[in-house]
């Protein structure tokens, strides 16, 4: 439940459209619902602005599906559902719970859209250095959209051909927050940060040859950025970047 759901519930009780007993039934699983192997946090949207997100990796398809079931059975809630690091087996199980489920194979994300409400004040622009970075960028795009933001993307504009990035100066200048995804040496966020006056959230990816150390080289490069508006999340963490961007975009 989010703030709007609670407000409507209280107003329905106040006007007599809903009995106190029915209202209590809807509220009884707050702040969380224990389903044995997981405690589903139905209170998170009220605290943080978006419902709990399911991290699929390490869970069985059945566990993911049961967590999603606990979320979608709250019919009073209009919160979107997001599962990250999912696979085809998880999607098949979730699809049996909700026909509205969609699997985005490139980013390995499952979404269930229950609301089209836009809560972000501006546009989040997701920039990727190379085509190999797009799966992480797409995780950021889908997360940000599911969290109620307008999102635009600019892909394959790395520093090896900087003119490709400069061709999108207008789009960058219109952004309220920018997520910049890059592997190799991780130079792109510094360039983007130097062009704009908004927060740039850098996402290092594991793209690169041996000395990139699975993204550690890009991570260290981004942490040492000379652009003062650049901050950094963990390697391949498009989801985390989008969460932070969404928080900023709601301020």
Question: How would you explain this protein's 3D organization?
Answer:
The structure is a single chain. This protein has about 250 residues and is an alpha/beta fold. It has two domains: about 5-110, no CATH class; about 125-250, Rossmann fold (3-Layer(aba) Sandwich), CATH 3.40.50. The protein is about 40% helix and about 15% strand. It contains eleven helices and eleven strands. The chain has helices spanning about 5-15, 20-25, 45-50, 60-70, 90-95, 135-145, 160-165, 170-175, 190-195, 215-225, 240-250; strands spanning about 35, 40, 55, 80-85, 100-105, 110, 125-130, 150-155, 175-180, 200-205, 230. The chain has a five-stranded parallel β-sheet, with helices on both faces. A hairpin with a 4-residue loop joins strand 1 (about 35) and strand 2 (about 40). It is globular.
Brief summary of the model shown:
The protein is of the alpha/beta class and 251 residues long. Helix content is 40%, strand content 17%.
Which percent range fits the helix content? 40-55%
Largest sheet: 5 strands, parallel
**How many β strands by DSSP?**
11
Structural class: alpha/beta
Strand order of the largest sheet: 8-7-9-10-11
How much β-strand is present in the residues? 15-25%
Please work out how many helical segments DSSP would assign: 11
Runs in which pLDDT lies below 50 for 5 or more consecutive residues are none
Please name the CATH topology of the largest domain. Rossmann fold
Listing every helix as H and every strand as E from the N terminus to the C terminus, the arrangement reads HHEEHEHEHEEEHEHHEHEHEH
**Count of the separate structural domains:** 2
* CATH architectural name of the largest domain: 3-Layer(aba) Sandwich
**How does the overall form come out from the CA principal axes?**
globular
Name of the CATH first level of the largest domain: Alpha Beta
Q: Kindly provide the radius of gyration, computed on alpha-carbon positions and rounded to a whole number of angstroms.
A: 20 Å
Overall pLDDT metric: 92
Distance between the termini: 20 Å
